Each structure stands twice: as C-alpha cells, then as structure tokens.
Amino acid sequence: MKHWYLLYCKRTEQQRAEQNLKRQGVDCYYPIVTVEKLRRGKYRQVEEPLFPNYIFACFDPESVQYTSVRSTRGVVDFVRQGAKPIHVDIQLIQHLMMMEDSDEQRELLYQGFKSGQKVTVESGQFAGAEAIFKEKDGEKRCILLIKILNQQTELRINNSDIKASC
C-alpha cells in the first residue's frame, strides 16, 4: 500500500531529487508558488518552492526500499519521528495541491501586505506605533508611512517587525 512521506533534500536540489525518484517509480510533489522579487532594480515574477529543501514522495515500501529512496541523488533523508519515517496524511497533500499558487499560499510564504494597509510596528524604536504600508523595499524590508510631529514620514523597516492592524 502506497504512503506519502516527507523527504529533506540538499539545498536547491529538489528537481534533481524528483527526477531521480521518478525513475525509481516514486511519485513526487513539491508545491510551487509565484512570488514577486526585486531583481536588478525591477520586480519580477519568480517561481519558488513553498517549502524549500523538502519534497513529498509517495511509494509502496514493499516495492521500493527506504534505503534506495534515501540514497537517491539530491535526497538527504526522510523526515522522521525517532527511527521511523513519518507518514504524511493524503488530505494534507490534496489540500496543498488545491491551494497551489493561490493568494493564501503567498501570504503564508511572505507577509502579503498591500499598499495603504494599516500596520503596527512590533519592535524597535517605533514599537507600538501605527503606520500605513506604502510598498516593498526588496525581499525583507518595506517602506511605511508613519506620522511624526503631524507629518507623514517614510520609514524603512524589516517585514518581520510589523503586523497587520485590526
């Protein structure tokens, strides 16, 4: 009987692992999302894995050996609980497949703030202050509009230092 497992792959070798596993008769899946990244001063659409370095594999352990899957080029090992590889629920895989490349996944991967959205600064010298999200400033930073002395001022801050206001 086939089961889904989670494999940890070498950095950026998910495609290699997938190709080699498929040659062995193992079904593979890793969710891909399209994100906007700043490259050479311009925002471009780039496809990235939702879970970098991880791939889901489905096979029957009676027909394909654990050791052959584990020793496949690009694969490091199974994600385990103790010595036993963890079975992944088929419903989780189906849910990921249905949601693939949706807005909800983008928000999971990156905090999807929109221009004009109210946010709260959580840390740093402006902790607790309310601001307005203006735009992205690279991959990990953003530009906020914050009121200081009754004037709106631009503030560049890490995305992890802000949260959406209610």
UniProtKB/TrEMBL annotation:
Quaternary context: Interacts with both the nontemplate DNA and the RNA polymerase (RNAP).
Function, as annotated: Enhances distal genes transcription elongation in a specialized subset of operons that encode extracytoplasmic components.
NCBIfam families, per database record: PRK09014.1, RfaH
Record-stated family: Belongs to the RfaH family.
InterPro entries, per database record: NGN-like_dom (IPR006645), NGN_dom_sf (IPR036735), NusG-like (IPR043425), Transcription_antiterm_RfaH (IPR010215), Translation_prot_SH3-like_sf (IPR008991)
UniProt entry keywords in alphabetical sequence: DNA-binding, Transcription, Transcription antitermination, Transcription regulation
PANTHER family noted in UniProt: RHO-INTERACTING TRANSCRIPTION TERMINATION FACTOR NUSG, TRANSCRIPTION ANTITERMINATION PROTEIN RFAH
Pfam families registered for this protein in UniProt: NusG
Domain NusG-like N-terminal: 1-100
Highest taxon listed in the record's lineage: Bacteria
Full protein name: Transcription antitermination protein RfaH
Protein source organism: Salinivibrio costicola subsp. alcaliphilus
SUPFAM superfamilies named among the record's database cross-references: N-utilization substance G protein NusG, N-terminal domain, Translation proteins SH3-like domain
